[in-house]
Amino acid sequence: MARAVWLEKRESELLPVPYFHVVFTLPRELGPLALQNKRVVYGILFCAAAQTLLEVAADPKHLGAKIGCLMVLHSWGQNLMHHPHVHAIVTGGGLSADGTRWIHGKQSKRRKPFFAPGKVLSRVFRGKFIGMLKRAFASGQLGFFGRLKSLGDQAAFEQLLSKAVRHDWIVYAKRPFSSPACVLKYLARYTHRVAISNRRLVELRNGRVSFRHKDYSDDQQSKVLPLSSCEFMRRFLMHTLPSGFVRIRYYGFLANRYRNERLEKCRDLLGVMSVPASTLKETQTTAENSDRVPSPKTCPACGRQSLVIIDVLSPARPLLLRRPHFLTDRKINSNCFDTS
Question: How far apart, in whole angstroms, are the C-alpha atoms of residue 25 and residue 169?
């Protein structure tokens, strides 16, 4: 329910402009450090990625406008290994510096919507992240344990950073294939759960858990990966976040503090008519009274329109109830194994 409410709100905020899907990924060398310092490193990941997008977009060489972006943290790959990265949905245009006009995004040589060169985003992101990480180390915010204990020495820490900056960092920037709403739905799968969905689980047999995954090294072939139950739980628990950590964040004119006012300003500049909430509620109330048919979103208990339609199911024969069998050696239905 929370995921559906979040998705409905975000879709209502979409503007009639191109959107871009940008992914910022940490290099492999910094993965163990991030795993031991989730709150600090993940926070730096958000800040560095957001500052990169806002500053590059504000540069007149690229766009010269203040954009809006929504960012979601993922820390896993298809095989459940540690793979920290953030997904960002970015507007292909933004408000001018004085807020009096909407600046549309540029086009590439092929006359397609274009945000910014990937190499520019990659290098700016790398510089900002390394700078913030150095300041976190100098202020004693980072902890080093086990195999990373030697990194507490400044020379060893600098050597790690030097190794991480020898190559360009991966920043994926491309316009969503179909629509920004589709990217929102993709991200919504993981906004209120962790790492793996029920439908990917195949079976639990002889103390081994099998699940489906895409092998990107083999042309994205769908394969089944069997793991011991201990290894499966180890990989799963790597992606739990610190208490109170916010994994969905908003920047630019979508920042929480001024979001409603800035969105109204954007719609006004784009010539999009927005219906006030009070008018919409009165219209709905009038329609209900005239037809005397309760809205499907009306709660039968409190009478408020607080329900959210997640899906419409076609009539089907009732399913027979089966006893739980998580601890048996039989194949299990993935829908019964809740990992939320």
Answer: 7
pLDDT by residue (tens digit) across 129-162? 999 999 999 999 999 999 999 999 999 999 999 9
Give 172's strand partners: 23
pLDDT for the residue 264: 92
- Would you kindly state where each structural domain of the chain is located, as residue ranges? 2-195+243-270, 196-238
- The partner residues of 88 in beta bridges, in order of sequence, read 22, 71
Please spell the DSSP secondary structure of 258-270, one letter per residue.
GHHHHHHHHHHHH
From CA 125, how far away is CA 120, in angstroms rounded? Answer: 8
Q: What is the mean pLDDT of residues 73-99?
A: 92
What are the pLDDT digits (tens) for 202-236? Answer: 999 999 999 999 888 888 889 999 999 999 999 99
Cβ-Cβ contacts under 8 Å for 264 (sequence gap 6 or more): 274
Provide the token pair at 207: 């103390």
Backbone angles phi, psi at 221, to 5 degrees: -70, 140
Q: Which residues does 183 contact at the CB level (< 8 Å), separation at least 6?
A: 19, 21, 87, 89, 176
**Closest to 268 in 3D by CA, of 99, 85, 119:** 99
Instruction: Report how far residue 21's alpha carbon sits from residue 31's, in angstroms, rounded to the nearest whole number.
Output: 23
- 235-240's contacts with Cβ under 8 Å and 24+ in sequence apart are 235/79, 235/80, 235/81, 235/195, 236/80, 236/194, 236/195, 236/196, 236/339, 238/35, 238/75, 238/76, 238/80, 238/81, 238/82, 239/75, 239/76, 239/80, 239/82, 239/194, 239/195, 240/194
Can you tell me the distance from the alpha carbon of 21 to that of 25, in angstroms, rounded to the nearest whole number?
A: 13
CB burial of residue 109 (10 Å; 0-12, 13-18, 19+): exposed
